[in-house]
Amino acid sequence: MKPRITLKKIAKEFDVSISTVSKALKNSNEISEELREKIKAFADYYQYKPNSLALQLRNQKTSVIGVIIPEIVHHFFSTVIDGIEEYANAKGYNVMVCLSNESFEKEVTNISVLTNGSVDGLIVSLARGTQQKNDYHHFEALIKDDFPLVLFDRVHDSLACDKVIIDDVGGGFKGANHLMDMGRQNIALITTQDFVTVGALRKIGYRKALHKAGMEIDEDLIYKIDDKQDLYGQIEKVFTGPKPPDAILAVNEIYAAIAMKIARERGLRIPEDIAVIGFTSGLISEFTTPPLTSVVQHGFLMGQQAAELLINRIEHIAPKEPKTEVISADLNVRASTCIKTSK
Amino acid sequence: MKPRITLKKIAKEFDVSISTVSKALKNSNEISEELREKIKAFADYYQYKPNSLALQLRNQKTSVIGVIIPEIVHHFFSTVIDGIEEYANAKGYNVMVCLSNESFEKEVTNISVLTNGSVDGLIVSLARGTQQKNDYHHFEALIKDDFPLVLFDRVHDSLACDKVIIDDVGGGFKGANHLMDMGRQNIALITTQDFVTVGALRKIGYRKALHKAGMEIDEDLIYKIDDKQDLYGQIEKVFTGPKPPDAILAVNEIYAAIAMKIARERGLRIPEDIAVIGFTSGLISEFTTPPLTSVVQHGFLMGQQAAELLINRIEHIAPKEPKTEVISADLNVRASTCIKTSK
DNA sequence: GTTTTTTACGAAAACGTTGGCGTAGATTGA
DNA sequence: TCAATCTACGCCAACGTTTTCGTAAAAAAC
Predict the structure, then answer these.
(1) How many alpha carbons lie under 13 Å from residue B306 in its C-beta half-sphere?
(2) N or C: which end of chain B has fewer CB within 10 A?
(3) Looking at the partner chain, which of A97, A118, A283 has a beta carbon nearest the beta carbon of B95?
């Protein structure tokens, strides 16, 4: 690679000092117009661009924000990044993405690498491994040093930093409520294992809805899926269990899509015999048969909010107390729960 | 934010010089063991980590690779990034992602920003706007300066740099071939507008397959979709056109899924009355009814290859001549073309 | 003709790090 | 006792930039 042109090289070319060149390029009238124009023309010709590392070092500011997500091959997280990028770029920041791959160790090293001066702040969604291990010392260290940090989606209560979360309880509530509005009585819940916060929260919403409606909660209708095992086999049990449900609330799109597939294989009509709701994260819901009613999570908005919180923190235009933004989850009613909408 | 601890502060603490501290932390035996241990303990306690900006500036190496993609909310690009991350991290590099949002201008500024010293090399997939404008001067400038650059998926022939492409011609060929193997005679092609390279290449494959089979190409069966218009309406014309097809080859998952939806609405049985093939980019294909036969694009592999080419280039373990890696596209046969596979 | 002001530039520090080189003082050898 | 050798550290340059301050020479003022 050709070495980039620097102030020093320009200075040597004109036999002036580095500071003269710097000032000339900044159009300082400390420098005679004649020399100024010559230097500018030369710099222009050789496409001089200030080395950003040097600037970052000098200004003690990188204008880069780091993002650590569990995985990127996931529509929801991609959408959040999109939102972060949009807001951050508008504010003159760049985005550096790292993946934890759901691993505690990788999350720790990522944080260590990124906080070595390369970013002004961090936006993170917790790795599953971290939630399982329940070890947050790497975040606590950051918080203790007042390092700008925003957690989103997968957060942890004990951490005193800015957060953006989706109203998962509300989402579960809305989903279950909708099913009851459609006259369903036996609503199965297909959720994750307990340590996955979002699953747990959506379950709370489900319980709240049933409770409010005066229905009792049948634990046999709650199925906890292990993502590492065979999904198909686990979800099949929903249909072979003691109490066959007339509706299913699944905490994500995949579970819901698989449930529909199995239901159809077993000759059940959707939504007549069984209604299904998922939580949207990708495009699957739109293209299933029938299209899947889903709780939509506004990932883009979430990303924007997270970026806004972080940049406010970085630029000290935020109060000291950590703030938590809640993004409401809305229901997108499609044909899997509601015959008339089956356009 | 609390200021980070630096060599200078440690030096002041022990009333020694900065270089002494630096050497002590590097375990240099130039420094007495006693002092060395004291300094290390102190640094450890205060969690000293070398400022990476300073290191990057000094070493003239960032160990960061920049990635510019048109959009991230796209399963294929996410998968590629995943592959890049995997390989890059293993080699000690970090990844900085920027989005061009398909815009020429944003691509230009992104490149300008990233090549100001913040990254050692660039992996890029061309923005649609760039392909449309057919203006590649920003890349030509990089190539002229021997800046490490790898183009992937959406590339341009005139650019003399490393590339990783998918065998789109082969993919189109395999898809069309499979449909002919299933006995189909009137294969419609739903593709993009001509300036979108991948669409154009897949069309070539389609033509090659038909030609090889001695079938003539009916231009009325080729539909070019404008992504900015109503997809549904445009794809509907495939069915209302002069020659109703008995098979459809769509150049992406969405077109294929929409085509299937319309086909079913019109009472056509899949695959009996009409077979459909798409190009996988996300998870849609798995969950449509019936599951969609697709040409799979190995995005992860592509990312790994791109990262490998780039890092070899950065570390000068690559021959001068640019190299192009071709990733083969394979067919994943599902029920939308083949009754017996409908498990 | 002397002083003051202005013009036009240079020197140097600072951001944080590393590594070659220099060297004071202690130790060793003869 | 003097030289040679170590030991253990400090100095300085370098990476590229910005900015404050200092200062020659020229211009203006008296």
Answers:
(1) 37
(2) C
(3) A97
> What confidence score (pLDDT) does residue A340 get?
59
Beta strands (DSSP E) in A72-117 are 94-99
Which residue's CA is nearest to the C1' of nucleotide D16? A54
Q: Please tell me whether the peptide bond between A244 and the residue prior to it is cis, using omega within 30 degrees of 0.
A: no
Please check whether residue B57 lies inside any domain of the structure.
Answer: no
Residues A284 and A304 in one domain: no
- Helices and strands (H and E) in chain B: how many: 14, 12
- Count other Cβ atoms within 10 Å, centred on residue A210: 21
Select from A164, A119, A161 the least CA-distant residue to A142. A161
Cα dihedral B42, B46, B52, B57, rounded to 10, equals -50
A140 residue type, one letter: E
Contact between chains at A254 and B283 (C-beta distance less than 8 A): yes
The whole-number pLDDT of residue A71 equals 94
Percent of chain A at pLDDT > 90 equals 93
Query: Are both A227 and A152 inside the same structural domain?
Result: no
Q: Do A54 and B57 touch (CB under 8 A)?
A: yes
Cis before residue B291, ω within 30 degrees of 0?
Answer: no
Residue A176 sits in the same domain as residue A207: yes
Partner residue facing B97 (CB), from A97, A116, A254? A97
Assess if residue A136 is contained within a domain: yes
Q: Is residue A75 less than 8 Å (CB to CB) from chain B?
A: yes
Task: Count the domains in chain A.
Answer: 3
CATH number for the domain that contains residue B147? 3.40.50.2300
Residue B336 near residue B280, CB atoms below 8 Å: no
Tell me which residue range forms the domain holding B46.
7-50
Strand D close to B58 by CB, under 7 A: yes
Which residues in chain B are closer than 8 Å to A150, comparing Cβ atoms? none
pLDDT at A242 over 90: no
- Report pTM: 0.93
Distance A93 CA to D5 C1' (A): 57
Judgement on whether residues B14 and B113 belong to the same structural domain of the protein: no
Which sign, positive or negative, has the C-alpha torsion A197, A198, A201, A203?
negative
Residue B313 lies in a domain: yes
